Amino acid sequence: MTPAPSPNFDARPEGSPIDHLVLHYTGMLSAQAAISRLCDPAAKVSSHYVVDEDGTVYALVAEAKRAWHAGVSYWRGVRALNNRSIGIEIVNPGHEWGYRAFPKAQMLAVRDLCRGILSRHPIPARNLVGHSDIAPDRKQDPGELFDWQWLAGQGVGFWTDAMGEPRDLMQDLAAIGYDVSLPEAAVITAFQRRFLPGSVSGVADEVTRKRAAGVLETL
After folding, report:
1. CATH fold for the domain made of 160-219
2. Second CATH level (architecture) for the domain 2-159
3. 70-105 pLDDT, tens per residue?
């Protein structure tokens, strides 16, 4: 763990639990550029940790404090997720700068970091989410190349291969946790990035409807 303290934090609301873990990608050209921004008081953004592609983990904000990573957000009836989450920024150029797969060393470091966080806080598996899950109209990260299935197989987060009987897709996505008051295509795209990474279309097709039903039935 490498210290890289950021001034961009404040106190969590009194009594707020830490029961969400949010994964992001940095969307910048280098780890140093991302850390510089996350530590810049003028930027007013931060995360608790940054994980570089070589597996180096940088600690920016103490877990007990509120980092500013989620922005306007919603999951399972909860808004303003900065109040009750820990945020991890994973170094990757993102869709704007040359999105690419996450290296093995980086994924192993993310796994180990998450395991440590989960040992300290009662975060249910379904509350380990991507930024696109909690802000689908604004964010794409960590994106369809992030291996949620592998991570869940390592005991971190949730995955299922289940397909269910197709039904009302938006009702199912709401029950899973998404904010379905947002544009439909954005919400569907976010779900596909997470659970159908090979079919990110934003279209409510039969496969997506079956997949959402299967996810919901397994939760």
Report:
1. Muramoyl-pentapeptide Carboxypeptidase; domain 1 (1.10.101)
2. 3-Layer(aba) Sandwich (3.40)
3. 999 999 999 999 999 999 999 999 999 999 999 999
Report d(CA 195, CA 211) in Å as an integer.
Answer: 8
Cα-trace Rg, the chain: 17
Neighbours of 126 (CB within 10 A): 16
Give domain limits for the chain.
Answer: 2-159, 160-219
217 classed as catalytic = no
Strand 85-90 to 20-25 pairing: parallel
Region label for 180, one of left (φ > 0), alpha (ψ between -120 and 50) or beta (otherwise): alpha
Q: Which of 14, 53, 89, 165 is catalytic?
A: 89
Q: What is the pTM of this model?
A: 0.98
Residues constituting the chain:
219
Please count the other Cβ atoms lying within 10 Å of the Cβ belonging to residue 146. Answer: 23
